[in-house]
Amino acid sequence: MDWTDDKSLQLIELYSERSVLWHAEHPHYKSHSKKNEAWCDIAAVIAVDAGEAKRKMASLLATYRKVRHKVLKLREKGAGADDLYEVTWFAFESFSFLEQSYQPRPSRQLIKSEDDDKALAVRARRKRKCGSVSSEDSQAPASDCTAQLSIAGPRSECGEFEAVGINVAAKLRRMDPEQQIHAEFLISKVLKKGLLNQLTEHCDVG
What's the pTM? Predict the structure, then answer.
């Protein structure tokens, strides 16, 4: 399809009207099915394949981030109004709706701190479960506790799968909107192959 400027602006407008696709606070933001429905609606309006609409939006979002980055850098340097970067890209203003949900990426130190906190929380839950087995075991080191849990029951009782889910969700929140779309699509494909017992060490999920 030939994506004219007008067609691209129409795509952006339709995308902005469906905040489930880009607003992390939307109640169905994590629903893969709801997002697919939104993309199908968009595709039907502009008469293109949903996959093509997604790819075009990903391209537009990437350009928007680059232009926005230049503008913010000049503002940080304290440039005057006359010196500000002149935005000539046709779609920049159309993406203004993203400003309400835009979150700066956390520093590496903050990410490490968050991951450490999550790991401590998981270990604390394991220790509490071990403590319920016997009063003597409550004094055992965390490593012994983990070993006891592995023998006592399935891993799901230890909350390991839940912890993985929380960790994946946290990383998705730190991604840009179009990267979230690609990541969710690939995760869905991996899970489907796993349920069908098709996963191998060299499995291609592209």
Answer: 0.48
Domain count for the chain, please give it.
2
- pLDDT band of residue 175 (cuts 50, 70, 90) is confident
CA neighbor of 74 nearest in space, from 66, 88, 87, 85? 85
Same domain, 87 and 121: no
Report whether 174 contacts 107 (CB < 8 A): no
Residue 97 CB contacts under 8 Å (≥ 6 apart), including other chains: 16
- Helix axes of 177-195 and 160-173: crossing angle, nearest 10 degrees: 150
Q: Which domain holds residue 162?
A: 108-169
Query: What is the b/e burial string over 101-124, where b = at least 16 CB atoms within 10 angstroms of the residue's CB?
Result: eeeeeeeeeeeeeeeeeeeeebee
Neighbours of 39 (CB within 10 A): 21
**Digit-coded pLDDT (tens) for 83-101:** 555 788 999 999 999 987 6
- 69 shares a domain with 145: no
